[in-house]
Amino acid sequence: MANKFVAVFLVCIVVAATMCVEEVGAHESKDHFSKCFKECDKECHENGHGNTFCEMKCDEDCGAKEAEAKLNIKF
Asked: What span is annotated as the signal peptide, if there is one (predicted)?
């Protein structure tokens, strides 16, 4: 019975550890997307577009740029 508790405890430790591990460069990717989105959103609003249009446009554009950078491809 004690062996089962130890096994469950070790599995819980492994699961918790994998949840805490971050992918290398994840912060850089988030910062790059955030910077791109803010610049795009500001420019879009200055051109007289509404919130919904700007959010959708910038999300799509910056998401594509992020994918390009991660996968080294061009759209």
From this structure: 1-26
Task: Classify the phi-psi angles of 24: left when phi > 0, otherwise alpha if psi is within -120 to 50, otherwise beta.
Answer: beta
Q: What is the pTM of this model?
A: 0.57
Beta-carbon contacts of 49 under 8 Å, excluding residues fewer than 6 positions away, are 57
| Helix (H), strand (E), coil (C) string for the chain | CHHHHHHHHHHHHHHHHHHHCCCCCHHHHHHHHHHHHHHHHHHHHHCCCCHHHHHHHHHHHHHHHHHHHHHCCCC
Residue (of 37, 60, 40, 36) closest to 49 by Cα position: 40
